[in-house]
Amino acid sequence: MLDYKLTKFENGLKVITAPLSNTKAVSVFVLVKTGSRFEKEEENGIAHFLEHMFFKGTKKRPKSVDIARELDSVGASYNAFTGEEYTGFYVRVESSHFDLGLDILQDILYNSLFGKDEIAKEKGVILEEINMIKDLPAAYVEYVMKELLYGSKPLGRMITGTRETVSKFSRDDIESFKKRFYQPENMIVAVAGGNDPSTGSGQANWLEKIKNKFGEIEKLKPEGFEKIEESQTKPELKIFNKATDQAHFILGFRSIKRTDERRPILKVLNNILGATMSSRLFSEVREKRGLCYYISSDIADFQDTGFWGVGAGVDIKRIAEAIKVILEEFGKIRKEEVSDEELKRAQDNLKGHLYLGLEESMAVAQFLAEQEMFWEKIDDPDQVVSDFQKVTKSDIKKLASDLFRKEKLNLAVVGPFERDSPAGEEFQKILERYR
């Protein structure tokens, strides 16, 4: 049983505190309900750009090195990340340095300078990040798939933005986006870790200090995002032509949204098919046939839609063979129930992965914050495990039958191919033959 307390301040900010025993570390995590899908077209990449700029200097700590030096001096780990639907910031410190971690997070989020020189320099950094992603086919194929699924909608764009959009960002643009989304009602502060008796650090003390830092921030109504209306009726293919020595592809189906009650079933199904080195796809495609070096399946779910797919890197001459083999595995799990052994192995894997992951304070803070943000309720880890254990073989077969359908099938490819070429036509025919 995970011990935690959820508190809501008058300005709308939610705070989750979770004292943990047997650890001297404490993690402070701020989760903001914004990301690339909240951007206007001309803003593409600004959520990610803003995340970077928060570490470039504040009134109290004018340079990025000032922020880094303070945290490094106490052995802290710290970072931030931007996704489609949320942005996160965290500091993990020895528990006696809780005040420092909290102070720096509040400082960067509400007192950043956003200096023009720093903005100009960071544009160069992010433009190189964009170049790096485009030079990594295994990474870029994810964006090819997003564009195939969601087109010009915000979900179909690169989180980093494009060279065109990033180059035009101004200080006013950054300030405007921050004001629209970095509001108390749109944020959760989660603290998890050990108490420090010497400083009085503990759950009540954490709450008081968080209220002093975040409790007076002005309450404004945050904006929403453009929802996805799906209308796919046949298999779709998108190819990004690039001279590579290996073909990279993602093959999968439109799937369920994040809060769908069938999510535990999908997690078990995903584990059986491609999430581990003993999964069906890894065993069949790599170990048995030697078709690839890497292959794995994953879930990309959002508030209103989702995608489940398999990614692999294969010999250019054998990509068609690999696609056919994977489609055969999709057909098998639709038509035949998995074995008792496979089901138990997947359930135990998910159980172990969850419990082992929650041994670390930052993972606990993120686990609690994400549930509260998107489900508006928090399930104890034991409940999550119980949901996995309740999944039956017939549940998996039914979900596979519902999702693994021809009209939901999509293939994204990065490699030396053209859409209107014999190879492209062959890929399309393979998809059309899927039953």
From TrEMBL:
Gene Ontology terms for molecular function: metal ion binding; metalloendopeptidase activity
InterPro entries: Metalloenz_LuxS/M16, MPP/UQCRC_Complex, Pept_M16_N, Pept_M16_Zn_BS, Peptidase_M16_C
Top-rank lineage group of the source organism: Bacteria
All residue ranges annotated as the Peptidase M16 N-terminal domain in the record: 15-162
UniProt-listed SUPFAM superfamilies: LuxS/MPP-like metallohydrolase (SSF63411)
Family from the record: Belongs to the peptidase M16 family.
Protein name: Peptidase M16
Organism whose genome encodes this protein: Candidatus Berkelbacteria bacterium RBG_13_40_8
